[in-house]
Design brief:
Blueprint lengths: L1 H26 L9 E8 L10 E9 L6 E3 L6 E3 L4 E5 L5 E4 L4 E3 L5 E3 L2 E3 L14 E4 L4 E5 L12 E5 L2 E5 L2 E5 L2 E4 L4 E4 L4 E3 L1 E3 L5 H36 L3
Antiparallel strand pairs: 1-2, 3-18, 4-17, 5-6, 5-9, 5-13, 6-15, 7-8, 8-9, 10-11, 11-12, 13-16, 14-15
Length: 246
Amino acid sequence: MADGLYVSMCGAAARAAQLDSVADNLANAQTPGFKAARPAFESFLPLGAAPDKQYPAAVATGLDLRAGPITQTGNPLDLLPEDGAFLAVRTGSGAIAYTRDGRLTLDAQRRLVSGGHLVLSRDATPIVVPEELVPVVDRNGTVWGSTTGQPGVRNAGDVDLGELARVRLDGPVARVASSLIAPAQGGRATPVDALVHSGQLELGNAGALEGAIEMVSAQRSYDTSMQAIQTYRQLDQRATDLGRVR
């Protein structure tokens, strides 16, 4: 009966990991650029275990890179790269990560940032906007300082400030922060010339309804595993009681 108890414990642990993942997805369903986590499960046969029992486990959590719903904001610094491309940013630790969160603002040094992280140009440098100019981003990802702030209208005093780095992520990726990801071992970031739409954002790709269904399913499986644990404990206790000398 001990093998059955351990199988149930492994099942409960695997479902607990799934519940954590689903809860995180639900909490970030409306977060721009968020990519849902999808846990993967596997069964295994431990050394010395009963040959008729397989132990479940949550072995990995992959990220779903599919596009999320698009919302119109009207803010010219809210950006949406086409074809699933990611913007490159530099984190506080100095590492380069990638995001679909296109909510750009200016920090105190008038550098373009997304979520507090420096937005990078194609040459991996921050984009700085002079004090007297307004940042504008065209469809080709070029950032220029405008004297009027009107997209598509270039004037003699306007200045090109750089081109946004856009990349396609291939292979395994890992989450760095809520809306930041980076290539994992075997993954790579390839520069692309994706067009950029202003005044639009991509929300998280974890649907609320889908997440609620997954939450209920995972919770029921977790409860079933916990009930099995209690049943095996009771059976073990009864076996012990029967074996006592009265």
